[in-house]
Design brief:
The protein has 7 helices and 4 strands. It is of the alpha/beta class and 153 residues long. The protein has a 4-stranded parallel β-sheet.
Length: 153
């Protein structure tokens, strides 16, 4: 692929995630997806009769992660954009200490997760539009391989 194409691809891939305040402002009125994921977690939690272990891939500013943490779930949030994770960490500081203790943020590519092989999650989410940043079959296969490896039976 030619240089201009790669430049534009990189610009569209990374630039929107360098300003987390603008990102949250842009998406502040989109809430239907948040309610959907919270309801899904609540339903699964009732079925298991316990709070869930959740892996959120592409957690960004925590628009979903913070809500799920507030609901009492144990969450690992993964994102490649450090500014987004830093902003998420600031939001988490507003939660009660016991809720904060149940959250871990990791700066990583979700096609190559730095998790222990035996680390399993009851629910793995890649919400909103995070998967659109997987541009080819190889990336999608790695992504789904990671999901398969870490999803509890």
């Amino acid at each position: 692929m030619s240089f201009p194409y790669q430049y534009l691809l990189d610009l569209g891939t990374f630039e929107p995630y360098q300003d987390p305040i603008l990102y949250d402002h842009e998406y502040k009125h989109r809430r239907k997806d948040l309610r959907f994921y919270q309801q899904l977690a609540q339903t699964l939690s009732k079925k298991q009769d316990s709070q869930l272990r959740i892996l959120e891939l592409g957690c960004g500013t925590g628009r979903l992660l913070v809500r799920l943490a507030r609901d009492g779930h144990s969450i690992v949030g993964v994102d490649l954009a450090k500014p987004m994770l830093d902003y998420c960490a600031q939001k988490l500081k507003k939660l009660a200490k016991e809720k904060q203790a149940n959250v871990k943020l990791i700066e990583a590519d979700f096609c190559n997760l730095p998790l222990k092989r035996n680390q399993k999650f009851d629910l793995i989410l890649c919400p909103f539009h995070s998967m659109m940043h997987l541009y080819n079959r190889e990336q999608l296969e790695k992504f789904f391989g990671q999901v398969k490896k870490h999803l509890a039976p």
